[in-house]
Design goal:
single chain; alpha/beta; FAD/NAD(P)-binding domain; 5-stranded parallel β-sheet
């Protein structure tokens, strides 16, 4: 595969990022790209390691060694075809995936994993520029109709595969543009939305129909959709955010992270937001509660809105910089992650719990925090206790709650169909992705729980194959 000794001769080289002083003044993509010669050299580092743990770690099962070899040989069209054989849109994952493949690369044992994610993005962009990616219009239609509810990564994956199988697919999207969290949850500085538009245009040319501004379960009843389609696939995501029940939660200035991020992305699209509705960090002390990627996105967005200061807190302890003894390669490393947004200027704190929000005339002014420590209980479970006399108050005029998502929204379609739920409140499905309602399937975060974009893509593809089998026998 590639150059058998490439990893010995070539060091890992990342594309790098735009200078902080430049990028914090706009919403352009932060990452830079290497030239073609450097990219070929990086692909040459993929060795014939016998067992491709990168492939094992990738939710979509990307055939990574094969397309690295194609890059090394200059066969960019072949590399693109191999990538697309397991992933409907590698240009998305090539930009925003946390790349579990790289963490499981054999070279990652020595912290020199192959630059798989950047290589992936380069392949797709090269393929688009060279005209290798063109509409694949099905030669025959089956006469079967499928409704996909939700235009996020899972829904688009379902639509792609079922359309290629010859079925007529309609995607119903509640917003005025397709993409779900790809479009409205992920900031433009991580994913330029023209990348989504390019792929959606391709899907339209291939015959996929898109119905925008349509909330199935509200503007259109689910039973009406069932009458008109042979199968319905729910890919509505897990959009119910985890809230916090403390004194002062009702104060103006305490908002969910996704409301904040969605609004800025809409503004970047040219949409108008009234001054009364505008969530703006400019000149404010911003506190982001939650240490994950969404919280990091809030940090970067707040900095671009010219916040006075940004602090991000996490209730859990600070992760180790290196892998702990119980977290060996090739498993996902639970180590400290520093994003490009953190590098732009943010104070990060761990082991802090929120006690109350303090306001004046209905407006948030301060937040009371308390230090906590975690110990093992009698049954091995982690127990949180507050440290005595560790509470303190900090100034904050804007708080963004970024503590993850609980489940899909039940109001509307889920309740209308009377769908059976799992113990976590997700839509319960069988091995064939079928729900408790006849002819209704579910995939992605709606049934799997909030997870990675690449996992949603994988689940969407698996669901599409099950729905295709169902339609063949119907």
């Amino acid at each position: 595969m590639a150059d058998p000794k490439g990893f010995m001769k070539i060091a890992r080289k990342d594309g790098g990022n735009r200078p902080i002083s430049e990028r914090v003044d706009d919403y352009g993509e932060v990452e830079q790209t290497l030239n073609e010669q450097d990219r070929v050299l990086q692909a040459s580092r993929c060795m014939d390691c016998g067992i491709p743990f990168c492939h094992w770690a990738c939710p979509v099962g990307s055939k990574i060694p094969e397309w690295q070899d194609a890059i090394y040989k200059g066969e960019w069209k072949l590399a693109s075809e191999i990538l697309h054989s397991t992933n409907s849109f590698p240009e998305f994952t090539g930009r925003i995936c946390p790349n579990p493949c790289e963490k499981s690369c054999v070279l990652a044992i020595h912290k020199e994993g192959v630059t798989i994610r950047e290589n992936e993005c380069s392949v797709v962009e090269k393929a688009f520029d060279a005209g290798y990616i063109t509409p694949r219009i099905p030669s025959k239609r089956t006469g079967k109709k499928v409704a996909v509810i939700g235009g996020g990564p899972a829904g688009l994956s379902v639509a792609d595969l079922l359309n290629q199988a010859g079925h007529t697919v309609t995607v119903f999207e509640k917003d005025n543009a397709v993409g779900g969290l790809l479009r409205y949850g992920i900031p433009d500085f991580k994913l330029n939305k023209k990348v989504i538009d390019r792929r959606v245009k391709l899907f339209e040319e291939e015959g996929i129909l898109f119905k925008l501004n349509t909330m199935v379960g509200q503007t259109v009843k689910g039973e009406e959709i069932l009458k008109d389609f042979d199968a319905v696939v729910l890919t509505i995501g897990a959009m119910k955010p985890r809230d916090i029940a403390v004194e002062g939660r009702e104060l103006k200035g305490v908002h969910f992270a996704m409301d904040f991020l969605t609004q800025q992305n809409k503004i970047n699209r040219g949409e108008q937001i009234s001054e009364q509705e505008r969530l703006l960090a400019q000149g404010k002390n911003v506190l982001v509660i939650g240490g994950g990627d969404t919280g990091s996105d809030c940090v970067g967005t707040s900095i671009r809105q010219k916040a006075k200061a940004v602090t991000q807190i996490e209730i859990l302890p600070k992760p180790p910089v290196e892998r702990a003894g119980g977290n060996p390669w090739p498993y996902w490393p639970t180590t400290l992650k520093t994003s490009t947004s953190h590098q732009e200027g943010c104070e990060r704190k761990w082991s802090l719990n929120t006690k109350r929000f303090i306001g004046e005339n209905g407006q948030l002014k301060q937040v009371e925090l308390v230090e906590v420590e975690w110990t093992k209980g009698d049954k091995g479970q982690w127990v949180m206790t507050e440290k005595p006399e560790s509470a303190y108050v900090m100034d904050a005029e804007l708080v963004l709650l970024s503590m993850g998502f609980v489940s899909p929204v039940h109001e509307g379609l889920v309740n209308e169909f009377g769908l059976e739920l799992d113990p976590r409140g997700n839509i319960k499905i069988g091995a064939d992705y079928a729900t408790s309602k006849a002819n209704v399937f579910a995939a992605g975060d709606a049934s799997n729980g909030a997870s990675l974009v690449v996992t949603a893509i994988a689940k969407g593809r698996e669901a599409a194959m099950s729905v295709n089998s169902f339609l063949k026998t119907k």
